[in-house]
Structures are given as C-alpha cells and as structure tokens.
Amino acid sequence: MIQNPLQRIDIQRHGVEGFYTFKDWVVSEEPLELRIIFESEGLLQEKSVAVTMRTPNTDHDLGLGFLLTEGIINYTSEVEKLFHCPNVSSEAQGNVLKIVLKRGVLPNFLNSERHLYISSSCGICSKASLEQVRLHCSRPVVFDKKVSHQIILSLAERLRDEQLLFAHTGGLHAAAIFEPNGDLLFMREDIGRHNAVDKVIGAFFQEHTFLENKILFLSGRAGFELLQKAVLAGFGMVVAVGAPSSLSVELANSQNVTLIGFLKKEQFNVYTHAERLG
Question: What is the pLDDT averaged over residues 7-26?
Fold first, then answer.
C-alpha cells in the first residue's frame, strides 16, 4: 500500500562520466474507488461510482470534486462524512473512499450517465456532447470583474512557486483557483489532469457554496472534459498553459466562459469572451 504522494527509488543516470546510481523522486500512482452510501426507501444503499488512477493525497477533495462535477450531488453540504474503508484487502487499504450522504439526500445517478455518455467513443457528435453538458448546468456563471493582462501573464509563475510535488518529480498536473487580482486561493496536484481539477474544486466547495469571479487555471491543455467540469462548477474564466480543443472553445463560448490558452511568459490567446480582460 502506497499513501505517500512521492517515492524515492534507485535509478541509473547517464552523465558525462557514464552511468551511476542515483536516488530520484517519482510520483506515486494508485487506484481510488469511490463508493456512495445513501438511504433509499428506508434502507442503506452502497454504490461504487468510479475508479480512477490518482496521486494518493487529498482524496476527500477528489471524491467531493468528482461528485460535484459529475452532477451526482449539488453541494458538499449534502455529505455527512467521508472515510477510507478499513474492511478491504491489504492491497486496497487507503484506496477505497466511502462518501456517506446525509439522510434524505439521494444521489443523482442520471447525471453521472453524462460522464459515460461523453466519454464514450461510439461516434457521438459534438452537438450532442454540448447538449448533455447544458442540460446539467445548475450553477450560473457570475464573473463581472475585469482582469488585467498583467495578472493573466503572472498566473503560471505564481502557481509554479506552489508546485512542490512537481518540483521534485516533474510528473504531475496542477489546477488552481485564483481571484481576479491574482491571489491564489487553492491549488492541487495529481498525476491525472482530471483529478487535479476535481481536487481543487472539491477543496473550494468545502469552504464555499458559490463560485463568483473566480479563475480556474490549468497547467496543461484545455480539453473538452476539463471545460465541462469548469462549466458545471460555475467558473467564468479558464486559463490554460496548453491548447484548447474546438469543442472546448464552442462550449466556453456558449456558456459565457472566457477561455484563454497557450499562456506563455509574454503572450496568450483569448478564444472566447475577451470583454472580461482589461
């Protein structure tokens, strides 16, 4: 069982003097199963909703963020408690997270079908994918602030100073939530870019109930599945170091989200709703 996000291992490094043994840090990767416990018709029910490969830290953030961005729950206040299941094999210790919903709260598994629907590779067209996200958008986008170009250009460096795990391994994605003035609120790292987004959203909604005038920063590309999580959470601005896809641009445009990509030291591209930049 591995619960440390980093491991130190012996490797062979080749340098100017040839091969030599070197101790290096690598990021840990373990599966996490998410199980929901809820009451239905007077009986306790338990349902496994997902298994994801993740960096084993901040699992509570990941579990809450996943349920929120998949529309299975609406608010973190609907959750009674979270705990790692002790009644599993030694290999699975720490890798099964149980999420107990409060009495009277029913999980919306119909919304979770959106994830399976959109993740399918069975020839689903972009129009149908976008419509599935629109149907489940319960949080309105509220972003009425102007963000300066200088703030946008500074976000990557501000985040990099906080990426301690990445500094050791170079093997993690990061997602962060910033204020329009550039203040960093939350940052999470994970080997999976989707997990990093779920973690930072889960962390935010444990302390807040509504996203207003907040920026989601992505250390990589802005693909459609990450944009759909941002939209369902209620972000009005998404900034990515990498490239967006055509479908993520279409989704951001239709849902009133400012989408910025290819953020570099001195430049960036604005794909949708540039009116928020001042």
Answer: 82
Query: What six digits make up the tokens of 50?
Result: 């997902």
Question: What pTM did the predictor assign?
Answer: 0.85
Q: Is the pLDDT of residue 80 over 70?
A: yes
Residue in 127, 107, 130, 117 with CA at minimum distance from that of residue 228: 130
Residues 218, 226: contact at Cβ < 8 Å?
Answer: yes
In angstroms, rounded to a whole number, what is the distance separating the alpha carbons of residues 62 and 158? 23
Place 212 in a pLDDT band, splitting at 50, 70 and 90: very high
Residue 245, CA atoms < 13 Å, CB-side half-sphere: 12
* CATH architecture for segment(s) 138-276: 3-Layer(aba) Sandwich (3.40)
3-state secondary structure of 250: helix
Domain spans, the chain: 138-276
The whole-chain average pLDDT of the chain stands at 87
**Burial (CB count within 10 angstroms: exposed 0-12, middle 13-18, buried 19+), residue 139:** middle
- Please indicate whether residue 122 is annotated as part of the active site: yes
